[in-house]
Amino acid sequence: xxxxxxxxxxxxxxxxxxxxKVSSFPSMPQAAVKLRNLFKKDDVPINEIENILRQDPGLxxxxxxxxxxxxxxxxSKVGSLKQAVMLLGLKRFEQxxxxxxxxxxxxxxxxxxxxxxxxxxxxxxxxxxTAEAMAKFFKIDDSxxxxxPALLHDMGKLILGKFVKEEAKQIxxxxxxxxxxxxAEHMVLxxxxxxxxxxxxxxxxxxxxxxDAVRWHHDPEYISTTYKRIKNPSIQSDIVYISNLIFQSxxxxxxxxxxxxxxxSEVLNRLRxxxxxxKALAEKxxxxxxKLSENLSFEQNTFY
Length: 304
Fold this sequence. Notes:
mainly alpha
């Protein structure tokens, strides 16, 4: 079986102090790991899902909160895990379970990137919402999971933030010369948050396509630390790239006019999207972001 692109990367090229942080990063809860393994089966009994989640009442509670939230919410409120599985379906339930765990991890402030409490989570859920809507609107095969890599695309910042803060002046000086922030990260630190995020997910045994989509969410055209071109970038990488690009350029704005960054034409062509459609998607994404901002409560670590 072909190795994931992330596995082709040599971890030895990453400075040891950063590699140690990756290896010591908390694992997913056992209940979440068991759920992910269970969902790989063709036939998943609901009672097995319930039995696993009984081991982690906190995760179970967060799953129900998210299932009833403004983003994931159903037409009627759900009061049990069984009801949530039946109404949402297994794929959606798995995505919510991952989100429920990551909500606790990603709602903290992130030094080095100037992210206040909740901002990383808000950005992540907004990118995931846009990626999923984009896949549905443009009728992209639903066998591709774009929600999960979009949700997890920036988790490498949780580790790299400390190092970015320490080298902020050098990184900023490179950015001022015209390099992108992620390339400046790599030039100074020997790695970047996309690579670190991919390594975390690889350690968590996520599927190769999700690992690769996180690794290349800033550069879907490239596949190595020297950014050599590849022939077949993944659909997931392209979608996560575009969704992230939208919020990078308009995140704090009230309008997309004059602020929206344009993706490479090759990416748009692969997805069969024209510029007018891309701009329309960005305008809708801005509305979604404002709605998410109004419905998210970070102080209480949940959704309303």
